[in-house]
Amino acid sequence: MASMKPLPARFAIAALGLGLVLTVPARAEETRAIPQSAAQVKFSYAPIVKKAAPAVVNVYAQRVERQPRNALFDDPIFRRFFGEGKRSGGPTAQSLGSGVIVDPSGLVVTNNHVIENMTDVKVSLADHREFPAEVLLRDPRSDLAILRIKASGESFPVLEMGDSDAIEVGDLALAIGDPFGVGQTVTQGIVSAVARTEIGISDYGFFIQTDAAINPGNSGGALVDMDGRLIGINSAIFSQSGGSVGIGFAIPVNMVKGVVATAKAGGKEVHRPWLGATLQNLNRDLADSLGLDRPMGALVAEVDPKGPAAEGGLKRGDVILAVDGKEVSDSGGVGYRLGAKTVGGTATLTIRRDGKQALVPLKLVSAPERPARDRITISGASPFAGATVVNISPATIEEFSIAHAQEGVAVIGVDDNTAAAMVGFQKGDIVLSLNGEKIQTTRDLERVAAERPYVWKLQINRGGQVITSVIGG
Predict the structure, then answer these.
(1) Residue 60: what are its φ and ψ, rounded to 5°?
(2) Is 382 noted as a catalytic residue in this protein?
(3) Cα–Cα distances in angstroms (integers) from residue 190 to residues 86, 171, 180, 201, 211, in the given order
(4) Catalytic residue among 75, 95, 98, 113
(5) Catalytic residue flag (residue 271)
(6) Tens of pLDDT, residues 44-55
(7) 306 in a domain, yes or no?
(8) Are residues 88 and 215 in the same domain?
(9) Statement: the pTM of the whole predicted model exceeds 0.70
C-alpha cells in the first residue's frame, strides 16, 4: 500500500462535514491501490472503478415480430367495433440497458424489463468486445434476468457479490452503467435508504435507495460499495423529467444471489418460499389498537389452513416483526426476506401476539399448484383472443400477486395487437363468467370463447372489484 500523508495544515479541508481530511499520495508516480480508509477514498475512486468496471456490460435487445395477423380481425363483427387491425412485421422494438458479469463463464445479471419480450440480445464489454447472448432465466417478480454470453473458451471478468444486509444509510456507493447509450459511466453518491418498499417496481418491493446519478440505460447496471463489490442492481429512478434527480433504486444483491444460483443449476424458474398467509400493513390506528408503540411490522389478515404459516402456528391478528432476526417494517419487508431465501429448511418469525413477543417456525416450501395451472393462450374470434390465462392455485396466487382471487381463471399476459389488448384486459384480471357461464378452469374459458355469439357478456375481478361488461350488439 502506498503511503499517504496529509496536506500542509493550511490546505487541510473538512470533507462534507464528516471530519475527514483530504490527503494525497506522497509521490504522484506511486502505484494506486484499493482504498483502505475513508480518508483515502476522498482522494480517488479510480482503484474501485478499475476493479469493478470491467465486469459491467451494455445490453442491447431487439424484438422482431413474427406473429401472423390474428384471425379475429377477419371476423366481421369485430371489424365493425374495432376496425381492421394492423399487420406487423420486421423489428418492432429495441431496448438498451446494462448488466453485470457474475461468473467467469459469462453469466450476466440484468433487469428483466431490459430484455422483456425481446428475441435478440447482445452484450458489449467495457473493452468494446461484443457478443451475442442467450436468456437463461427470466424472473419478472424480482425484475431480474440472467443471460449467458455466447463465447466458447472465454473467461470473463467478474464482479464479486457483497452483502446488501451489511450496508448502512450514509455508506458511499458507485453506480456503473450505460446511461442514454453514451458509454460506460460511473457516478458517485451515498446509500440514502436500505429498505424502500411501496415503490411499485416489482413484486418484491424492497430496494436500496441511492443519490448516485442513475439515468435511462443504467437499468441492470451495478451499484458498488467501497470494496468494489456488487451490492445492488440499479433498476429505476423517481423522476418527473426522465433524468436523474438523485432518487434511484437498486435491487439488493442478496435477492440477486438466489436468482443466479437457480440459473447456474439449470433452473428456468425461481422457486421461493411460500408464507401461506395474507398480510396487511399497519397504520397508526391499527398499531394503537394492538398495543404497539409504532406502526412497524405486518399484520396477519388471513391464514391458509393448509399452508406453512398455519402449520407453524401463525394466527390471524399476529404481527410479524422480524424474519430470522431481521426487522421488517411492513408486508413488503416480509415478502423480501422470504423471497431472498431458498426453498428447504426453516425460518423463524418473530411475532407479537396478545401483547407479547413469540417465535414461530416456518418451513421454507414452495406454494403448491392445486389445481395445475394449465396455461392457455386463447385464440380464435373472441374478446379474449391473445390473452394467456392460468388456473388459480396457491402457486399462481403467489407468483402473479393475485391475492384477491378466490375463483375463476387469471389473466397473466396479453399479446399486443390482439382483441384482448384492444378490449383492455390486463395482467392480473380474474375471469369469473362469460356469456352467463361460470368460468372455473382455463378449459372452461377456452370452450366458451370458441362460441360465436353476436353479443359477449363477461364478468371479471380486477383488484378486488367485480366489473361486468357487454361487447357487441
Answers:
(1) -115, 130
(2) no
(3) 48, 5, 22, 21, 6
(4) 113
(5) no
(6) 899 999 999 999
(7) yes
(8) yes
(9) yes
